[in-house]
Amino acid sequence: MNIRLELVSTEGPLPTSTYDAYDGDVKIGMAQLRHKEAGNPTLPENMRSHVYYEVEPAYQGKGYGTKILELIKNEAKLLGMHELFLTAFDTNIGSNKIIQKNGGEYLWDYINPEGKRLLKYKISL
Ligand SMILES: CC(C)(COP(=O)(O)OP(=O)(O)OC[C@H]1O[C@@H](n2cnc3c(N)ncnc32)[C@H](O)[C@@H]1OP(=O)(O)O)[C@@H](O)C(=O)NCCC(=O)NCCS
Asked: What is the pLDDT of residues 75-88, one digit of tens each?
């Protein structure tokens, strides 16, 4: 595995750095690093997050997601950030594991109006 992030854009009001993730020449996913916590406006303020990532379905379950978050931590450090806040629904086992393997410390959770449980984590950089 030879994963790297390629900056695609820093557009947006927050701003947000958007990356494509490659293994060699193959695009296997993407990630977004918001320089300030943000999220769906229907969420409470304490459930905002800095990071979103996804791995193409064909490449899931091979460790790419874990590595992408590791690389995002490096990018955040380069931006002068000292901590990252992340969220994941309890049903998203892969995402919860990725965050925990990258040093995520569980903070609190929130049950949304549909009854789904969203967990909030902090990663110190
Ligand atoms: C969540 C997601 C990024 C995981 O990416 P991935 O490359 O498959 O993750 P990894 O291979 O690094 O897996 C990390 C761990 O989660 C486990 N895992 C991954 N997907 C899983 C699944 N669907 N069910 C159960 N466990 C899963 C892996 O087995 C691994 O476990 P281990 O640490 O015990 O070995 C990917 O499924 C995805 O893009 N989902 C859609 C978008 C999304 O939900 N993004 C996260 C927003 S919070």
From this structure: 999 999 999 999 99
Residues of the chain with pLDDT under 50: none
DSSP state of 103: T
Distance 96 CA to ligand 1 centre (A): 8
Domains contained in the chain, number = 1
Closest C-alpha residue for ligand 1 atom 27: 94
Task: Return the pLDDT at 75.
Answer: 97
CATH classification of the domain holding 119? 3.40.630.30
User: By residue range, what is the domain housing residue 64?
Assistant: 3-124
Ligand 1 pocket, CB under 6 A = 52-55, 60-66, 88, 92-95, 97-98, 101
